[in-house]
Amino acid sequence: MEKTLDQFTVGECGIVRSVAGEGKIKRRLFDMGITPGAEILLRKKAPLGDPLEVTIRGYELTLRKSEACCVTMRIDGSTSTAAKKEGD
Questions:
Q1: What global pTM score does this model have?
Q2: Residue 13, class by beta-carbon neighbours within 10 Å (0-12 exposed, 13-18 middle, 19+ buried)?
Q3: Residue 80's closest CA among 62, 64, 57, 52?
């Protein structure tokens, strides 16, 4: 199953499949470590849905909803390593 990062619910995790966007936005996401194959866990969502706090590559990152909608995620049913670490 695939959906964009802004459509995730809190606690949901997945693998980055692709990053869309133009120029500066795409470059900024890549610079923050959001690259295909990276695992992302949605930790928190603001009351109005913007911004989002995610865990990626072992650190917390805050994204705007406009940035998160550029990230296409693949969701499989298995428990992620990030979710396991969060539960410890």
A1: 0.76
A2: buried
A3: 57
